[in-house]
Amino acid sequence: MMVKDIYPGYESSYPQDFNEINGTLYFTAHNATSGRELWKTDGSTGGTIVVKEIISGGVGGFETSGQWGYDYYPFNVVWQTGSTFYFTANNYASAPGDISMTLNCGKVMVPAEVP
Questions:
Q1: Does this model's pTM top 0.90?
Q2: Structure letter (DSSP) for residue 98
Q3: Pairing relation of β-strands 77-81 and 63-66?
Q4: Which of 63, 82, 84 is nearest to 17 (CA)?
Q5: Which residues, 6 or more positions from 6, have their beta carbon under 8 angstroms from its beta carbon?
Q6: What SS3 state is found at 66?
Q7: Cβ neighbours of residue 96 under 8 Å, at least 6 residues apart?
Q8: 92 Cβ partners below 8 Å, 6+ apart?
Q9: Rounded CA gap, 8 and 20, in Å?
Q10: Are 87 and 75 in contact (CB under 8 A)?
C-alpha cells in the first residue's frame, strides 16, 4: 500500500533504511528536488514528511559524490535515548564529509546546536 507518492511520475523514490523509533517510522527516500533525504511517517499521507533537507538542492544528505555520479549513503541510528537519536549524514554534496546529527523533539540539530 502506498502512503504517499514522494517522487510523482514514473520514477520511484526508492525508500529504504527503515527505522521505527517511538512509533514513528523514519526512512530515506529520493526525489528530483531534494535528492535522498530523511523522511518520517505516521502511516498517513499528511503525516509523511521530509524531516530536514540536510543539503539544499538535488543532492541529499544521504548521497555522496562518486566516480560516476552520486552514491548512496546509509541512514543509521548510532545512538538513541527516548525520543532523541543520533545519526550521521553527508553535509557536503561534492565530497564525503560526514557530520553527526541529532533528532531531538522533531528538530534536526548539527553539533554546534546540540545543547
A1: no
A2: E
A3: unpaired
A4: 63
A5: 13, 15, 29, 30, 31, 39, 48
A6: strand
A7: 64, 65, 73, 90
A8: 55
A9: 25
A10: yes
Could you read off the pLDDT tens digit of each residue along the chain, which spans 115 residues?
Answer: 678 888 888 888 999 999 988 888 999 999 988 889 999 999 999 999 998 888 888 888 888 777 777 778 888 888 888 777 888 787 765 555 545 555 554 555 555 444 4
Answer for the pair 19, 27: CB distance below 8 angstroms, yes or no. Answer: yes
User: Which residue's entry shows cell 522533531?
Assistant: 106
SS3 93: coil
The residue written with cell numbers 499521507 in the block is 45
Residue type, 55: I
**Burial tier of 43 (Cβ tally within 10 Å: 0-12, 13-18, 19+):** exposed
- At residue 5, what is the residue type? D
